[in-house]
Specification:
single chain, about 270 residues, alpha/beta, eight-stranded mixed sheet, three-stranded antiparallel sheet, about 30% helix, about 20% strand
Length: about 270
């Protein structure tokens, strides 16, 4: 576990870009239309729906041709990219879904709330209701499939730590979004694979990033992601011209540089 003092020391100097100035950071003239109420809300109360507004804005203006996403889940992230630009999306997800340390599902919902989905689904029947595992088998990416957008998606079913990227040339992707497994070795592996595969001038984005203690204390996943990024911070920062946190949000954004190479050792999962 990274000490609070180390977190404070590094993130005190981290560049922060407020949502009102995101257009400046992305060098575009169209300002983000963002609800004022959200700007006053503490990060600990932030939701993915709010980050969705920011990510859609980034895709709409950055307009990648090839986008990489770690963590498909039901396909919301893939869909936001497909709807905002003309990109083809590569996305990685465990076929059988993510499991917590105690063996419980990481993601599930009541079947009545999920609706009909073609393909296999994993169910858990209790005396009160029936649950569906929402990040496994036929549930993976069902939202982009329902919009008939599968022809623009390369869905990869595997543990991202074992995903073979040797046939993808360096700089193949314009953007990458890291929102898969939140444990340390997965965050480490996904980060370095994304950095190696995103071109100079491209964007690498992390979700569940919490530079402030109140947000980290409110989210176990954010604490895990942020702590691991701190472990790798000195080497990661060398690979970017800019690294900035969008305030308020759970998003860290890096603008990939051209000078820093990625050593093979960096790709070794610790």
């Amino acid at each position: 576990m990274v000490s609070g003092a180390a977190l404070h020391r590094v993130f005190r100097g981290l560049e922060t870009v407020g949502v009102a100035h995101l257009h400046t950071a992305l060098v575009c003239t169209d300002r983000l239309q963002f609800p004022r109420a959200w700007r006053r809300r503490p990060v600990s109360e932030w939701t993915m729906e709010s980050d969705d507004v920011l990510l859609r804005y980034i895709f709409r203006h950055f307009r990648p041709n090839r986008h990489l996403e770690f963590g498909t889940w039901e396909g919301d992230g893939v869909l936001r990219c497909l709807e905002e630009c003309d990109a083809t999306v590569w996305t990685v997800n465990l076929l059988e879904g993510e499991t917590k340390d105690d063996g419980a599902w990481a993601y599930g919902s009541e079947e009545r709330l999920v609706g009909e989905v073609s393909g296999r689904r994993e169910r858990l029947v209790t005396s009160a209701t029936t649950w569906v595992r929402t990040d496994a088998y036929g549930q993976i990416g069902h939202k982009y499939l329902a919009r008939n957008l599968g022809h623009r998606v390369c869905q990869i079913y595997c543990d991202s730590r074992t995903w073979d990227t040797t046939h993808y040339p360096p700089g193949f992707f314009d953007t990458a979004f890291i929102d898969g497994g939140h444990v340390a070795d997965v965050v480490h592996s996904d980060s370095w694979k994304a950095i190696a595969l995103v071109r100079a001038g491209g964007l690498v984005m992390w979700h569940d990033f919490a530079p402030r203690s109140d947000a980290r204390d409110s989210s176990v996943t954010a604490a895990q992601v942020t702590n691991q990024l701190l472990v790798d911070w000195s080497s990661i920062s060398e690979c970017f011209d800019r690294l900035f946190w969008i305030e308020p949000s759970w998003l860290l954004v890096g603008v990939r540089n051209a000078g820093a190479g990625v050593e093979a050792a960096s790709l070794t999962v610790r």
